[in-house]
Amino acid sequence: MGAFGAAIIALQNKKSSTTLVSREKLLSFSCQTKNTRCKGCENNCLLNIVVFSNGKTFVSGNRCKNVFQNKKVQNFAFNMFDYKRKRLFDYYKPLTMEKAFRGEIGIPRVLNMYENYPFWVALFTKLGFKVALSDNSSNALFNSALDSIPSQTVCFPAKMVHGHIEKLVQKGVKTIFYPCIP
Ligand code: SF4
Questions:
Q1: Which atom of ligand 1 is nearest to the CA of 37?
Q2: Residue 88: per-residue pLDDT
Q3: pTM exceeding 0.90
Q4: Residue 37, SS3?
Q5: Alpha carbon of 45 to ligand 1 centroid (Å)
Q6: How far is the CA of 34 from the centre of ligand 1 (A)?
Q7: CB-count burial class (<10 Å; 0-12, 13-18, 19+) for 148
Q8: How far apart are CA 22 and CA 28, in angstroms?
Q9: Same structural domain for residues 109 and 60?
């Protein structure tokens, strides 16, 4: 099995001399590695470049062969995340405070609001609320409510919820819609 088995079989079937490097060459073998980013396109692949003592190189981490051309290979692609964010959160214009006869209600921009926000904002707007949405997620927002998280075992998105609610509280929003939806 494995390397030893392959070596024994190779020894038994030895018909010509090996093409492997000699022991002497192996002892003087050396290589250096470095990391860099390919700027060929927006993937910005992290490349691992190995330079051997004989001057040859081996590159890994590239997702296409154009890495060797060292030039921009394609136009920057459509930003689907940006499109989705605008489609979801700019979908419905919230009421102004003057028109919101029921007052203001806050919605944290978290979890399944990335699917259902258009429904909730439409519903609350029709009911006469001004919907206040929390800001986009960020490290600062995440860090702002770490002291309110009761357990480290909850997942990162769940921890992020605390920051969004904290943000709404800081904005003075008195009522926050955060239901349990099975
Ligand atoms: S290796 Fe190819 S896919 Fe990766 S960044 Fe370079 S050009 Fe783009």
A1: 5
A2: 94
A3: no
A4: strand
A5: 6
A6: 17
A7: exposed
A8: 10
A9: no
